[in-house]
Write a structure and sequence with these properties.
- With 320 residues, the protein is of the alpha/beta class.
- The protein is built from eleven helices and eleven strands.
- The longest helix is centred in the middle third of the chain and has 22 residues.
- The termini are far apart.
- The relative contact order is 0.17.
- The structure holds 6-O-phosphono-beta-D-fructofuranose.
- The site of 6-O-phosphono-beta-D-fructofuranose (F6P) has 11 residues, from loops.
Length: 320
């Protein structure tokens, strides 16, 4: 393979630029060329494609977001869109494609491979919810951003002896809530993977106050419910005067952490190796600190992502 393409798709994540950089630099090192597709699968269908040079990826490793832009493009699920995408890739002489994104992006990559066009998926999302990998690009940066916010909120919560509900992202997964809850010493972590009892949550706040706690921080994953709705339920039980902070898209931005930059660089270089070998329909993962290659469909259909539930138990044991 002499010419490969790359796109970023779905929600952006810090470290995507570092991964693109690694793909471009490693491909050039191997004597291959790289073309960038703007705006994910939407740009692919539209033929928004350009050659990437060594300089295009200079000064990029530290930048958040994705300089190739991203888009959510459910229309790519149609065969018509997929065939149009392949036609555009062939028009530019591109023989293989690297897709950085979440599970929707993986399905797009698999569809192209099924039509005979080799693709490799790299897990990139702050949610850390992709099967087949312990960590996704962007998760580490995101949890550090959330942690900074939680530390600040704790200051003001303590000053006013208040209860806070902090809603964090994660789509249907609780990883962001789990990791930041433990790291910030939150009193309670509520995630979609485990049910909750609102009266128990309220009892916990009261007991903490009786023991002299000056604040109560509840980290709530967005996949459970809206933060304001959760606060209303609590206030209906007792007059806690709960304050709510919805951290929102601040969690998706910012310069990637060292860990995300290194992970992205490793994934990017490996993706080039995989395409160079002519493999397609595969995705990369990090398992026990090793980069692994597995089939996209096997990964999506037969593997599940589960957060480390030991962290939840740990928090119950040490937070009060
Ligand atoms: O998948 C990343 C993510 O940030 C989720 O955590 C969140 O639910 C979603 O994207 C938000 O999507 P959008 O930016 O399209 O509103």
């Amino acid at each position: 393979m002499k010419r490969i393409g790359i796109l970023t798709s779905g929600g952006d994540a810090p470290g995507m630029n570092a991964a693109i950089r690694a793909v471009v630099r490693k491909a050039l090192y191997e004597g291959m060329e790289v073309y960038g597709v703007n705006y994910g699968f939407a740009g692919l269908v539209a033929g928004d494609i350009r050659k990437l040079t060594r300089r295009d990826v200079g000064d990029m490793i530290q930048r958040g977001g994705t300089f190739l832009y991203s888009a959510r493009y459910p229309q790519f699920a149609t065969e018509e869109g997929q065939l149009k995408g392949i036609e555009q890739l062939k028009r530019f002489g591109i023989e293989g494609l690297v897709v950085i994104g979440g599970d929707g992006s993986y399905r797009g990559a698999y569809a192209l491979t099924k039509h005979g066009f080799p693709c490799v998926g790299i897990p990139g999302t702050i949610d850390n919810d992709i099967p087949g990998t312990d960590y996704t690009i962007g998760f580490d940066t995101s949890i550090n951003t959330v942690l900074d916010a939680l530390d600040r909120i704790r200051d003001t919560a303590t000053s006013h002896v208040r209860t806070f509900v902090i809603e964090v992202m994660g789509r249907d997964a609780g990883d962001i809530a789990l990791w930041t809850g433990v790291a910030s010493g939150a009193e309670q972590i509520i995630i979609p993977e485990k049910g909750f009892d609102i009266t128990e949550v309220a009892d916990n706040i009261r007991e903490g106050r009786e023991r002299g706690k000056k604040h109560s921080i509840i980290v709530l994953a967005e996949g459970v419910m809206d933060g304001n709705e959760f606060a209303q339920k609590l206030d209906a039980i007792d007059n806690f005067h709960v304050r709510v902070s919805v951290l929102g898209h601040v969690q998706r931005g910012g310069s990637p952490s060292a860990r995300d930059r290194v992970l992205a660089s490793r994934f990017g270089a490996k993706a080039v190796d995989v395409l160079k070998d002519g493999q397609g329909g595969v995705c990369l993962g990090l398992r026990n600190e090793e980069i692994v290659v597995s089939g996209i469909i096997d990964t999506l259909d037969n593997m599940t992502h589960t957060p480390n539930m030991e962290l939840l138990k740990l928090n119950e044991e040490i937070s009060n």
